[in-house]
Amino acid sequence: MLRKLLKHEFRATARVMIPLYLITVLLAVLTRATALWAEMVTFDGMLGRNFLALLSGIIIFGFVLALIATFVVAVILAILRFRSNLMADEGYVMFTLPVSTHTLVWSKLIVSAVWFLGAVVVDVLSLLALVANVEMFWELGRVFQEIADQWNAYYVGNGVAIQVVTQIVSGMLLFAGVPMLDSMDGWLNSLTPATAIHGFMWGSILISAIYGAILYCITIRMLHRHLNLE
Description:
The protein has two domains: 1-132, no CATH class; 158-230. The chain is 86% helix and 0% strand. It contains eight helices and no strands. It is flat.
């Protein structure tokens, strides 16, 4: 049933997000095209240069707005879909389906997460389109190959399961030891930058996970206790 809910939710939200993604990519291409045009074409009169500058400014402004809109619209759409489907009149239908409240909430969370990830990918690709060239793609290929080699060597030598457990425990210890940071200056100064950043990232992930779990429990409880379908 979760699959059917996801299919329905993707259909409903794709009508908004897919065109927005396409517009963002199109504006990125137009921004790059106007920049190349400005380099290749020489205008004799002031009118021509002013027109090109105005056109470039409009396209760049629209491109920046589109980059921001991919995330803003994803947030607004997630809120509106959750409210209209579960908290408003549609909730009378949704909560009569043979699925649990957890399934309904997860269908919203998964779809929203996919569109957020899509926004990241589209924005990154759009920004790369502004500076992309043949040499850059060759360099990116070399970098990705080196990362893959390092990744394989690291995990083959240490084991995936042990590494995951170690990182989780390290993140928990880092979070628990925040009050003692003042007395740990010497130890902290001895850490390499990579180790410090790694620990900070895992601590941030742990805090975000706890925060998300609390909000999830509150949401489920509200839906169970305060939704009146009679």
